[in-house]
Amino acid sequence: HDRISPEMKMFRWTSINLNCNYAAKQHRDANNFGPSFIQAFGDFEDGCLNYWPEDDKYSDKEDKLKEADSLKLQLKDGLCLFNGNCSHSVDSFKGERYSVVFFCVRCF
To answer: 42-69 burial string, b = 16+ CB within 10 Å, else e?
Structure first.
């Protein structure tokens, strides 16, 4: 229990999404409420999560976001807390890549 971060201890979720060899195109999650936790596993190279934390989440300018403004997060390194309502995508990768996303749906 002492290895769990304070953020994870307070995190509540209703749903888990399991992905196998999926490189998501740039998108915003439509029905998430609050943050999401994600981690990737497997024998793979590349496959970083690109995340735009400054995305206003509401405009139709998603295709105009600059790559330079994104954070590249290596999900093999551990759990990552992010706002799925901000634009995000996954880089292409080689190998077997699995990811687990914990999130809360709006209706909860």
So the answer is: eeeeebbbbbbeebeeeeeeeeebeeee
| Count of CB atoms situated within 10 Å of the CB of 95 | 11
Residues whose CB is less than 8 angstroms from the CB of residue 80 and which lie 6 or more positions away in sequence, other chains included: 37, 38, 39, 49, 73
Alpha helix (H) ranges present in the chain?
6-10
Low-confidence ranges of the chain (pLDDT < 70): 1-4, 7, 58-63, 107-108
> Measured between alpha carbons, how far is 107 from 31 in angstroms, rounded to an integer?
8
Provide the whole-model pTM. Answer: 0.85
Tokens at residue 4, please?
């769990």
